[in-house]
Structures are given as structure tokens and as C-alpha cells.
Amino acid sequence: MPHFIIDCSENVIRLKSPDEIMQEVFDSALSTGLFTPSEIKVRINPFSYYNNGNSLDDFIHVFGYIMEGRNADQKSNLSKVIVTTLNAILPEVSVISINIQDFEKSNYFNKTMI
């Protein structure tokens, strides 16, 4: 925990490698002090087919899923840090956004909890 899933237009991974984009999101999340390195998971989904406001403008949207317990200021800062970083490395991408959602401890379960 947390999980950051990056959706983007396929052209974005022609501008920067998927590994570089994922590492920047990882490093940004780590820099907030909210997570340890072993907790952070990042994935990327490039899309060949999409309709972005009836255009084919490049886009990046990050879906962040974190364990409940962080306050609104911490989540806001996390969002700002990640979008700012992505904008710095990919200034030619006109749409860069993120949303953060909480996992509820009461209904989260993984293999290590068996």
C-alpha cells in the first residue's frame, strides 16, 4: 500500500519510458514521507484507443489508492507533488491529473494476512 495506477495515452510512453514515469511517481510518493519504499506500488496502462474530450490530446491520470488514516492536507499534498513532478518531466502533455481514494482497513485483505 499505496497503489498508483497510471493511465495515459500511448504517445506518453514514447516521450518518456514507462520505467522512468513510474519511477518519478514512486519517488514523488516517497518524498512526501507518508510511505516507506516497500509499501509503494506503481503500474502503468498506456491506451491506444481513447476519447479525451472528443480529442486525441495526450493525457495522464493517476489513480492513487492509499490506506485510510491520512488527512485531507496530506492527500492534497501527495496529489500536488505527483502532478507537479509529472508536469516537470512531461510538459508537452496537456492533461495531467490524479485522484486519491482511501482503502478501508476493515475490508482490506491480502495474502500475508492469511
TrEMBL record:
InterPro entries: 5-COMe_2-OHmuconate_Isoase, Tautomerase/MIF_sf. Coiled coil: none annotated. Pfam families: CHMI. It comes from the Bacteria. PANTHER family: 4-HYDROXYPHENYLACETATE CATABOLISM PROTEIN (PTHR37950:SF1). This is 5-carboxymethyl-2-hydroxymuconate Delta-isomerase.
